[in-house]
Structures are given as structure tokens and as C-alpha cells.
Amino acid sequence: MVGQVIWCVAHTVWIGNSVAVAASVGLIAHHLFGVWNGDRRLAIRHGEAFEVVKARTSVIPFAAILDGRQKLPKDYYKEFLRLPYLTITALTLGAYFAHPLMQAASFRLHW
């Protein structure tokens, strides 16, 4: 949920008009409702078991780790050393560094 809020704020600042503000407020409200409703439904379905899990976790990234409710294992970094993650990282960096080439090529299209 925090990621969606950051996305909304960034796009609102970037676009900077009242339509973007209204859309961002609506999306943030939608995500807050989603978190609340999801927790409510899981609490109804699983009762005390959900409350135990909820007490150990957080909807805010890394909050449970910073609060000491959870601890990262010593080899947590191995989770990120997988082919799909490395592939997406390489493609993203490649596209980022290729932007000047793509801009120059599109300038020469003369459409």
C-alpha cells in the first residue's frame, strides 16, 4: 500500500493539476479501504490465528523489522539472487542506459 501512495504522490507532483490530485486522493482512499477490508475479511475468516499473524507483521514495508517484531535471516540476500530478479534488473538497467540511443533514433524518424 505504501508503494501505491508513493506512486500517487510522485505522479501528482509531476503532473501538478487538480485532476491528478483528485485521482491520487481517490486511489489512496481506494488502497486504504482495500487494506482495511482485507484485514477485516481475514479476521472474520481466521479469527485469532489472523490476529497473531497481524501482530507480527505490518502493511508498512520493513516496519515489523524495525520494531523488532520480525528478524531477517542471516542469508536473506539469497532471496534476491535468482534468475528472474537478475534478469529484470539487467533489462531495466539496459533500458535506462539505452535511453540516449533510443532518443537519438526516434529523433531521426522524421514522422
Apparent shape: flat
Q: How do the helices and strands follow one another from N- to C-terminus?
A: HHHHH
User: What's the number of domains?
Assistant: 2
Low-confidence stretches: none
User: How much of the polypeptide forms β-strand, as a percent range?
Assistant: under 5%
Q: Report the span from N to C terminus.
A: 41 Å
In DSSP terms (H or I, runs of 4 or more residues), the helix count works out at: 5
- Mean pLDDT equals 89
Class derived from helix and strand content: mainly alpha
**Could you describe the largest sheet, including whether it forms a barrel?**
none
Helix content: over 70%
- Number of separate strands: 0
What is the radius of gyration?
21 Å
Keywords: Isomerase, Membrane, Transmembrane, Transmembrane helix
Subcellular location: Membrane
Membrane topology: Multi-pass membrane protein
Protein name: 15-cis-zeta-carotene isomerase, chloroplastic
